[in-house]
Design goal:
- The complex is a heterodimer of chains A (257) and B (233).
- Helix content of chain A is 42%, strand content 22%.
- Chain A is elongated.
- Chain A folds into two domains: 115 residues, D-Maltodextrin-Binding Protein, domain 2 (3-Layer(aba) Sandwich), CATH 3.40.190.10; 98 residues, Periplasmic binding protein-like II (D-Maltodextrin-Binding Protein, domain 2, 3-Layer(aba) Sandwich).
- Chain A is an alpha/beta fold.
- Chain A is built from ten helices and twelve strands.
- In chain A, helix 2 packs antiparallel against helix 10.
- Chain B has a single domain, classed as MetI-like (MetI-like fold, Orthogonal Bundle), CATH 1.10.3720.
- Chain B has eleven helices and no strands.
- Chain B is globular, with a radius of gyration of 21 Å.
- The model of chain B has no long low-confidence stretch (mean pLDDT 89).
- Classes of the chains: A alpha/beta (257), B mainly alpha (233).
- Chains A and B meet through helix 3, strand 7 and helix 7 of A and helix 3, helix 9 and helix 10 of B.
């Protein structure tokens, strides 16, 4: 009788252990949905993979324009983390009480670059903008994309706004702007350095790195949204982004920190 | 435009509305010219090519506009087949131009012009044309004096649908337009811009206008169809 009882308890405890194990596995491997600014696409894909390997959590990444994400988040989009292309949108969300207070930080400082797919077209001073040697100049919509606003500031500072305006073509976000130049429909375009830069050098074409003094800093902030307050994967990702491994990846794509 | 002291928003909105109407009208006229011979051929041909060509014409019904926009962007670019051709003709490239949007709209709205005309031609059948032939009408005369008048409701439906569908076009314009005021910024992309920029008041005005317009078009179409069937019966 006692033998049967011990056997039974043994079975029960094994089963219980398995269940507990499963529960802890489920809670430890959580999932986080991240809204990522288009310019941060390439580095975030790499960071996402490293994050999943190192923590066992899963990061679901959605890429798009920061303004678009703002509208979606206000209307209840199921994101837990926002990696914005600016610091204004996260600040605004914070003021509106949609983010976890105190969790905001700058994950990267972006760099603007004048880029052409054609090697040798862009010189390292951006003098090409004063020539007639190009058909179109692609910029991101300055109302929607911080990189577009920075491009407008740069052009204004160079005193070329009136001359270049007829050549403008606008992308809805920096991803589309890159696509216009990469498909050579526009000979030149202001894009994010991270889109044309990997492992410390230009991937193709020619470029002028716009000096940081030409426009307001492209400070990119990350926020933990209220929806992610109790999500372990979301808080883990916020920590991971500030770690050495993530920072090394971010720097390799030409961002400053 | 100094004689019209409009606030900034109204000026942009009016420019986008005007451009949209211009694009839709031109697309409709060109589509009717292209779709008529095409529908005639599809209605009467017994060629092996009939099936594949009918499928190609109907493709934009099924394909997402992003597919069309992406292929157009590549094809219109300096290294694409259309881009090579237009450059050789001395026209430059068509991406980010009104002509480029017009080309995109014609392809995108093609099935909406071809299908109604095709159905109208098919409904006529062989008989009236045979009768016309026995009365010694040349085929070309019979086409203009017999087939076209009989197919009139099909043409009206085709025109209205092409026009309305071009007004509602968004994805293709977004991908090959470049959002240039007075050239490629139409109402649908303007609304998108307002929404993304959180200018909800402006977005509401334009979006509401679009809704009313679309409803009016569909209502008109259904009233007209009922009238036509009443006349026939």
């Amino acid at each position: 009788m006692t033998g049967l009882f011990t056997k039974l308890t043994k079975h029960v405890s094994t089963a219980l252990g398995l269940v507990l194990c499963a529960i802890s596995w489920v809670t430890s491997a959580a999932e986080v949905s991240v809204a990522v600014a288009s310019n941060f696409t390439a580095p975030m894909q790499k960071i996402g993979r490293a994050f999943e390997q190192d923590t066992g959590h899963k990061a679901l990444l959605a890429f798009g324009a920061t303004g678009g994400f703002y509208a979606q988040i206000k209307n209840g989009a199921p994101f837990q983390v926002l990696l914005a292309a600016d610091n204004e949108t996260p600040a605004r969300l914070e003021k509106e009480g949609l983010v976890v207070a105190g969790a905001r930080f700058t994950y990267a400082i972006g760099k603007l670059v004048l880029w052409s797919k054609q090697p040798g077209l862009v010189d390292d001073q951006g003098e090409v903008l004063r020539t007639v040697g190009f058909n179109k100049l692609a910029i991101a919509n300055p109302k929607l994309a911080p990189y577009g606003a920075a491009a407008m500031e740069t052009i204004t500072k160079l005193g070329l706004l009136a001359r270049l305006k007829p050549k403008f073509v606008e992308g809805a976000n920096i991803g589309q702007t890159y696509q216009f130049v990469a498909s050579e429909n526009a000979a030149l375009g202001f894009v994010a350095l991270s889109q044309v830069f990997a492992e410390g050098r230009l991937t193709q074409g020619s470029a002028w790195m716009v000096p940081a003094s030409f426009h307001a800093p492209l400070q990119q902030d990350a926020v933990l949204l209220k929806t992610g307050k109790d999500n372990v994967a979301a808080t883990a990702l916020m920590t991971y982004l500030q770690g050495d491994k993530a920072r090394a990846i971010i720097r390799a794509y030409g961002y400053e920190l | 435009m100094n004689w019209l002291p409009l606030p900034e928003f109204d000026r942009h909105a009016l420019s986008a509305i005007w451009l949209t109407l211009e694009l839709a009208s031109l697309t409709t006229v060109l589509l009717l010219l292209i779709a008529t011979p095409m529908a005639w051929w599809l209605a009467r041909s017994k060629s092996w090519w009939r099936g594949p060509i009918a499928a190609v014409v109907a493709l934009p019904l099924v394909l997402p506009p992003t597919v069309l926009g992406f292929y157009l962007l590549v094809a219109l670019g300096p290294n694409g087949p259309i881009g090579q051709f237009t450059q050789a003709m001395g026209w430059g490239t068509l991406s980010f131009t009104f002509a480029g949007l017009l080309l995109g709209s014609i392809i995108y709205s093609m099935p909406f012009a071809v299908q109604p005309i095709l159905h109208a031609f098919e409904a006529i059948g062989e008989r009236p044309m045979e009768v016309a032939a026995t009365l010694r009408a040349r085929p070309i005369d019979a086409f203009f004096t017999v087939a076209l008048p009989l197919a009139k409701p099909g043409f009206i439906t085709a025109a209205i649908l092409s026009f309305a569908h071009t007004i509602g076009e968004f994805g293709v314009v977004l991908m090959i337009g470049g959002n240039i005021p007075d050239k490629t910024r139409v109402v649908s992309t303007q609304i998108y811009g307002h929404v993304e920029a959180m200018e909800y008041t402006q977005a509401h005005w334009l979006a509401g206008g679009m809704l009313v317009f679309a409803f009016a078009v569909l209502l008109g179409l259904s009233l007209m169809n009922r009238k036509n069937t009443q006349v026939m019966t």
